[in-house]
């Protein structure tokens, strides 16, 4: 489910600052930041990934970008998040919190402001009793 464009983002030097070189941020970095921010939101049960991500997680490796699609183009940064909500949580409140958390995390860590953060709720996770 992790899909990114091959384009990278080159940050501009702020006005009044001396030019020291270019800063390139790979789309994978933004994907990982968005994935971690999503999983920190109360009410999120997880993100939806593809078969390969599920296999990798079963082998013990955490896939932070699972269920996140990022696109960087001339219009800006667009992020789509596919996630599961815990049963009993308010879907609109959790979705807004995911948007807010992703936007804030990306702004704090990269100085980029996402143009859109779209949250797609793909299911409800019920508590399992063993």
Secondary-structure topology with pairs:
Blueprint (H helix, E strand, L loop, with lengths): L8 E3 L11 E3 L1 H13 L4 E4 L3 H8 L9 E6 L2 E11 L4 H20 L5 E10 L5
Parallel strand pairs: 5-6
Antiparallel strand pairs: 1-2, 3-5, 4-5
Shape: elongated
Q: Structural class, from secondary structure content?
A: alpha+beta
Biggest beta sheet summary: 4 strands, mixed
Enumerate the spans where pLDDT stays under 50 for 5 or more consecutive residues.
Answer: 50-58
Work out the helix count: 3
The overall strand count is 6
Percentage of residues in strands? 25-35%
- What is the CATH third-level topology name? Alpha-Beta Plaits
Q: State Rg.
A: 16 Å
Along the chain, the helix and strand elements come as EEHEHEEHE
The CATH C-level class name: Alpha Beta
Mean pLDDT: 81
Report the end-to-end length measured between terminal Cα atoms.
30 Å
CATH architecture label name: 2-Layer Sandwich
Which oligomeric form is depicted?
Answer: single chain
Helix content: 25-40%
Count of discrete structural domains: 1
């Amino acid at each position: 489910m992790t899909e990114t464009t091959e384009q990278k983002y080159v940050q501009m030097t702020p006005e009044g600052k001396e030019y020291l070189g270019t800063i390139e941020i790979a789309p994978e970095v933004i994907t990982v930041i968005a994935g971690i921010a999503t999983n920190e939101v109360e009410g999120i049960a997880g993100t939806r990934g593809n078969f390969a991500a599920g296999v990798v997680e079963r082998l013990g490796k955490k896939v932070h970008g699972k269920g996140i699609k990022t696109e960087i183009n001339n219009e800006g940064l667009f992020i789509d998040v596919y996630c599961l909500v815990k049963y009993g949580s308010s879907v609109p409140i959790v979705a807004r919190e995911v948007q807010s958390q992703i936007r804030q995390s990306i702004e704090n860590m990269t100085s980029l402001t996402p143009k859109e953060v779209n949250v797609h709720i793909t299911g409800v996770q019920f508590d399992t009793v063993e």
